[in-house]
Amino acid sequence: MTKNPAIELRQISKSFGPVQANKDITIRVMPGTIHGIIGENGAGKSTLMSILYGFYKADAGEIFVDGKKISIPDSQAAIAAGIGMVFQHFKLVENFSVLENIVLGAESGALLSPSLSKARAELAALAAEYELNVDPDAIIEDIGVGMQQRVEILKALYRQANILILDEPTGVLTPAEADQLFRILKRLREEGKTIILITHKLREIMDITDTVSVMRQGEMTATLRTGDTTPEDLAELMVGRKVLLRVDKRPAKPTKPVLEIQNLNMVDDFDVQRLKNINLTVKAGEILGIAGVAGNGQSELLQVLGGYSPATGIIKLNGSEIDLSTSVSGDGQARRALGMAHVPEDRQREGLIMDFMAWENAVFGYHREKSNQANRFFMDNNAIRKETEDKMKRFDVRPPNPRLTAKNFSGGNQQKIVLAREIERNPDLLLVGQPTRGVDIGAIEFIHQQIVALRDQGKAILLISVELDEILSLSDRVLVMFDGEIMGERNPANTNEKELGLLMAGVSEKAAQ
Amino acid sequence: MDIMPRWVDIIIVPLLSLFLAAFLSALLIIAIGESPIAALNLMIEGTLLRSAGWGYMLYYTTNFIFTGLAVSVAFHAALFNIGGEGQAMIGGLGVALVCLLIPWPHWTLAIVGASIGAALFGMIWAGLPAYLQAKRGSHIVITTIMFNFIAAGVLNFFLVDVLKPKGSMDPASANFPSTTHLPTFQDLASLFGFEKAFRSAPANVSFFIALLACVAVWYLIWRSPLGYEIRALGKSGPAARYAGVRPVKIIMIAMMISGALCGMMAINTTQGESERLILNFTEGAGFIGIAVALMGRSHPLGVLLAALLFGFLYQGGAELALWTKIPRELIVVIQALVILFTGALSLMVRAPLERFFMSIQKAKE
Question: How far is CA B361 from CA A217, B355, B356, B358, in A?
């Protein structure tokens, strides 16, 4: 018996101006399977899914659901065709209850209460069928990220989705929450649902998918049975060349302390305590990694260190205390002058000005330094452009054109511009947040090498990342943060993801034993 | 890569917008029952073909350069200063006090003193809403527009109660002493033997100060570290904070520079033309500055060109009102159309142009 594929795309093409985002994409996903789509950033995964969900219209190609050709002009049509989407950034109303969020957009009639009670009954049925338990009356902002994701899945199921698309679903989850999500997905598969999982994490693909498609530069380079492939092969298919997945580094030789933090506390504008009694030391010649699920105080720690969030406590750089009282109004330039460089977590929001040209971005934060001034009043723009071009060549930024606007570079090249700016100043301490977020695998390798090289020059590095793999492979010591606190320290050589995952979920050392 | 070449963005888009605005205006003139061609002829004859016309046009242009630059500087910091009217009024007060209270020996000194007075007063008037924005988060658009009304009240008070000479029925200050009077273009032309040029036109030496201000603003915005910080904050607040740029400081400085430029408009109108402080001398120039900055894309050269255009429209409009049935208000309509097309609807012009250039690119491939 030959079944029709649950969903089939034939020769889908889409271009945005001169950029061909999707080119002749053909995928067949059989019902009751989990199909992974993997590819670097900008490979065209999101565009493809947006076409499936009716956000974009394909330039060419056909879509079949259950063997029938359909057209998807908008998301209503996608829902009607049984396609449900769980976005990377949830589309939930924070101050609505779970039930209200599920009904939102699918209300029937003029009055709300009949829809709500109908939804309540259906929700109970769904919960029983798929083991998706959630309190229908809980308010979204009170429940955890994992729960919110469950609500998104329920929202899709409530709309009778048979095909569920998940876009980078584990980005915001702890390893334990991710495992739970995968159990749910497997359960959904058993019930005959079809799942498309978009991710850039090779491990997830290997763990859960039945088949996998690899995208590169808008094209589908391969579709394989997951069982027949290895992470190394997939990485090679994604990038188009052999990639080193592990970082090659020698043991650290830490010397004197460069950054010392004692009893650091921070309360945000809404009176929430974001940092609780942080104590840590980073020595010259080592990489200290801070692991944790996003939103547990790591960003705030970077902001405080970078000099643009107020805090109380003691921060010492090279033994001398930094005045924290001025950081309310922004003290970044003074800190940079002391030898502290900072690669921020969000390069598009903080690290770069997207509308500025590369050369203007290349002196950002250092623009008042003598070397960038022609005289007392004006900046030496010509010299800056010249120097930027050299830097761009050394850091392999493509294209090395200092007059190109930052937004016209790919994520990896943007990050290289930031790194070049911060590393080339020869800082004593480098703060790095999410160095490879949204960066293609090829550039990840380069960025990791640069960070390790800086360490080997005897500089101190504080690394913050939500990617456990990255923390484990780069750091010489690992601290885990949860809810603004340091939960414990581990040696990356003799710990594992499970142990760190427990700490990341707030299970303290005593309770874990 | 950017889709369109830079010159298209800078030159063709505003010109097309302008053409569309002119086309709609022509329809309006036809609706009134006049000939648009004749009207255009009249406008050109009354401004560009007579030296006195130039004299009037450049007088208006001077005002618009100052207010246009002011709005541009604030724009670069992503601040929308619509308080140009008020800042100019208070600047006028500064000019009047400087000219009346200090016995100036010669106009060359008086213009320096009056410029400082005007800039200082305008600066203070813009500084108050800037402080409210930077420290208290009160939106600058709301506060600056309200400060226009307060400024009008303050000006009224001074002209009715404080500065009005005894026995005068006119809400205006006393005439400034003759040593503060600025040479007009007519005076300058007679120096070179052209007695008849620019006859009785109000344009005066403050036009050259406006040109200097263009150069100064260019250096400030594109060459100085301060301008760099202003632009950085304007493009991205979080990035500016990351780089150690202090938003409070930059907002205050950008707005105060903006206010100072608006205030300096008064040396043209008050010291140069009326030679005493009168009510409503700003004549809406503070608002025209917004259109000038929009059309000039907040670049000093663009501001200069846009200010010339609006000077032409102003003077040409006066001519129309004088010689035809077309009311002077039509010029306001035309200005509104220009603002609409160059500001709000520039995307409407840009989108088809982008498609056009995209198809060219495709054809090349």
Answer: 20, 10, 9, 5
Task: Quote the ipTM score.
Answer: 0.84
Residue A1 binned pLDDT confidence (cut-offs 50, 70, 90): very low
As a whole number, mean pLDDT of residues A270-280 equals 91
Q: Is B159 exposed, middle or buried (0-12, 13-18, 19+ CB in 10 A)?
A: buried
Q: Nearest by CB to B223, from A368, A378, A405: name it.
A: A378
Give the chain B residue whose CA is nearest to the CA of A406.
B1
Alpha helices in A159-273 (DSSP H): 175-190, 202-208, 231-239
Q: Is residue A421 part of a domain?
A: no
Cα B215–Cα B221–Cα B227 angle in degrees, nearest 5: 140
| Identity of the residue numbered A202 | L
Amino acid (1-letter code) at residue A334? A
CA–CA dist B161, B171 (Å, integer): 9
When scoring A302, A331, A353, A404 by the number of chain B Cβ atoms within 10 A, the one with the most, hence best to mutate, is A353
Based on the structure, what is the number of domains in chain A?
2
Nearest Cα residue to A299 out of A159, A433, A438, A168: A433
Instruction: Kindly determine whether residue B228 and residue A367, on different chains, have CB atoms separated by under 8 Å.
Output: yes
If asked whether residues A28 and A79 sit together in one domain, one would say yes
Question: Containing domain of residue A290, as a range?
Answer: 257-353+427-512
Domain ranges of chain B: 58-311
Decide: B56 and B318 in contact? Cβ < 8 Å: yes
The C-alpha atoms of residue B24 and residue B337 are separated, in whole angstroms, by 8
Q: Do residues A288 and A260 touch, judged by C-beta distance below 8 A?
A: no
Higher pLDDT, B158 or A172: B158
Write down the pTM of the prediction. 0.81
Query: Smallest CA–CA separation between B6 and chain A, in Å?
Result: 12
Cβ A349–B235 below 8 Å, yes or no? no
Mean pLDDT, residues A423-447 taken together: 87
Chain B CB contacts of A364 under 8 Å are 232, 239, 243
> What is the pLDDT, as a whole number, of residue A308?
87
Q: Which residue of chain A is at minimal alpha-carbon distance from B361?
A: A18
| CA-based nearest residue in chain A for residue B3 | A17
Name the residue in chain B with its Cα closest to that of A346: B239
Nearest chain A Cα distance for residue B363, angstroms: 11
CATH of the domain at A41: 3.40.50.300
Convert the pLDDT of each residue in B173-215 to its tens digit.
Answer: 999 999 999 999 999 999 988 888 888 899 999 999 999 999 9
Distance CA(B265)–CA(B213), nearest Å, equals 11
Decide the pairing of beta strands A287-291 and A460-464.
parallel
Check whether residue A157 and residue A276 sit in a common domain.
no
**A49-A88-A209 Cα angle (round to 5):** 65
For residue B49, the surrounding DSSP H or E stretch is none
- From CA B340, how far away is CA B346, in angstroms rounded? 8
Residue that terminates a domain, selected from A184, A206, A239: A239
Angle between helix B225-235 and B247-266 (nearest 10): 110
A-interface mutation test, from B2, B9, B222, B242, most A Cβ less than 10 A away: B242
| HSE-CB for A467 with a 13 A CA cutoff | 21
**């790919």: which residue's tokens?**
A410
For chain A, positions 321-340, list CB contacts with chain B under 8 A.
329-336
Interval B93-125: pLDDT, tens:
999 999 999 999 999 999 999 999 999 999 999
Looking only at the bridges linking them, the beta strands covering A460-464 and A429-433 are: parallel
Label residue A379 by pLDDT band (50, 70, 90). very high
For residue A21, the SS3 value is strand
Domain B58-311 = CATH 1.10.3470:
yes
Instruction: Work out the percent of chain A whose per-residue pLDDT is above 70.
Output: 96
**Which member of B235, B243, B362 has the closest CB to residue A365?**
B243
